[in-house]
Amino acid sequence: MVSEKSNRSLVVVELTGGNDCLNTVVPYDDELYYDNRPTVHHKQDEVLKLDSRLGLSPRMGPIKRLWDDGNVAIVNGIGYPEPNRSHFRAMDIWHTAEPTRVIGEGWLGRAIRDLDPRGENVLTGLNLGRGLPRALSCLGVPVASVGNLETYGLFPDIHDEQARLDTLNTFSQMYGGAEGRDVVSEFIGQTGEAALKGADILRSAPESYVSEVEYEANPLAQRLRDAAQVICADLGTRIYYAQHGSFDTHGGELPVHNKLWHEVSAAIGDFMDDLKEHGRDRDTLVLVFSEFGRRIKDNGSGTDHGSGGVAFCIGGSVEGGLYGEYPSLKTADQLQGDLYFNNDFRSTYSTILERWLGLDPVPIVNGAYEQFDFIRR
Predict the structure, then answer these.
(1) Interhelix angle 253-277/61-68, nearest 10 degrees
(2) Beta strands in 39-133 (DSSP E)
(3) How many CA atoms lie within 13 A of 218 on its CB side?
(4) Crossing angle (nearest 10°) for helices 183-202 and 161-175
(5) Where does CATH 3.40.720.10 sit in the chain?
(6) How many CB atoms lie within 10 A of CB 195?
(7) Which superfamily, per CATH, for 5-151+217-331+338-365?
(8) Alpha-carbon dihedral of residues 27, 339, 135, 278, nearest 10 degrees?
(9) Residue pLDDT, tens place only, 49-66
(10) Strand, coil or helix: what is 350?
(11) pTM here?
């Protein structure tokens, strides 16, 4: 049995730049893979075999270990109709769950609003990095962006304590009490108050955190370590977001892609080990996605923008296995040299929203979509 939905966390890892799914989940038993990839391929004896047809990139050992434990769902053939090969538009589609219109609200921002409709917790959503990804954007929904949890706070560069207290006091007077202001001033005031409150709460997370896990020395690993600290601190944060890349491998793909997947796999392996140590692995779901895949044929050194992709759902409450059909590499089955998608990414979103977070997915993903069974009941 898993705990109640109110205790569950969702950690989203974005592989920025367009991950090459063919060199991630490798059809090592398909001659067409090697025919189309004479240079940019993994050899049969290198891949980490999942079954008699498919295997993982050789640098994905920690994720293969989690697969062997039954905690990895691989969603093959994920995408949407009329795929867009622009990084910006494709990522915007995934962020907003809207392929046909440009809209302002992100799907996770809408989810945070539904999880905390009164805005009682300014830390319901947390971005692990700088800026604010479109997926988390939603009017009236505060989301903290944390570059480094250990140094996070307002005005951390002011080392004199009294000067910092004076500055914080001025900040609180500037942004406190937005009543009677115009819409823009009110929004700024609310944002300032949320930042002040969130920084104060987050400061407590590292203080109570102890772990035997030594994370890899890469940016994603450190961000997931920050997520583990917040999860273990029970601050009520439900949704976490982290980005890693760039997976835009037009040239020199094999060494670059291998390095990136070593970093991602090691970071997620450490993160899940840490959560298991603290008894939180069954309450945490990790979604890994990228905005699009790459072309079926290599260009001699790398691969260009394509369509069709793969997503991973990882966690102690995940029913591991292969979901969605692996797209055919036959010429007649290609989409202008790309992989055809066979399941809409909003099916995966809907599964997570309803079966993991207990939310109505229809208004969040802009429609009703068939769901998967990768979450244990």
Answers:
(1) 50
(2) 48-49, 55-56, 72-79, 125-127
(3) 19
(4) 140
(5) 5-151+217-331+338-365
(6) 18
(7) Alkaline Phosphatase, subunit A (3.40.720.10)
(8) -10
(9) 999 999 999 999 999 999
(10) helix
(11) 0.90
